[in-house]
Amino acid sequence: MKYGRIIVDANIAFRCLVAHRGDVRAQLMQQSRVGLFTPRYLFVELFKHKQRIVTASRLPEDEVLEALYTLSSQLRFYNESLIPFPVWTQALRLCGSIDEKDTPYVALTLHLDGCLWTQDEELKRGLRAKGFDRFFEP
User: Does some domain include residue 103?
Assistant: First the structure.
């Protein structure tokens, strides 16, 4: 499958910011030329879990912030208000019983006709059970 637009979820972003997850960072850098997108909501999630990310990375906060800068320069942040309401409804139907916090990522995937990049196996199982199978597998 050829991937044109890859939607990066918070799970992947968190893994990129943790020092010992260089494998995910390397995969992200390889895919950046393809077109990596994420909803602006990712900023909220990263800010909300900043301390957890710093602790897990075992790096000084300034190095984590530098990694965040590098990560954000690889992503195209998409304004969620540009996603039509019917797409949001469809995404909420898909995510509602799994994890509503993933709705912006699934909505963006549907809207851009892309593939979702996540390592959240529970989310993948739940979405596949509902007929959604648009995942990026590096």
Answer: yes
Write the pLDDT tens digit of every residue in 64-107: 888 888 888 888 999 999 999 999 999 999 999 999 999 999 99
Report the side by side order of strands in the sheet with 76-78.
76-78, 36-39, 6-8, 115-117
- Residue 1's pLDDT is what? 44
Number of domains making up the chain: 1
Instruction: Report the 3 state secondary structure along 94-105.
Output: HHCCCCHHHHHH
CB contact burial 95-117 (16+ within 10 A = b; e otherwise)? beebeeebbbbbbbbbbbebbbb
Strand partners, 135: 116
CB-based contact 71:38 (threshold 8 Å)? no
Residues 50-64 have pLDDT tens digits of 888 888 888 888 888
Which CATH number belongs to the domain containing residue 100 in this structure? 3.40.50.1010
pLDDT of residue 3: 57
* Position 106 in a domain: yes
- For residue 56, the enclosing domain spans 6-129
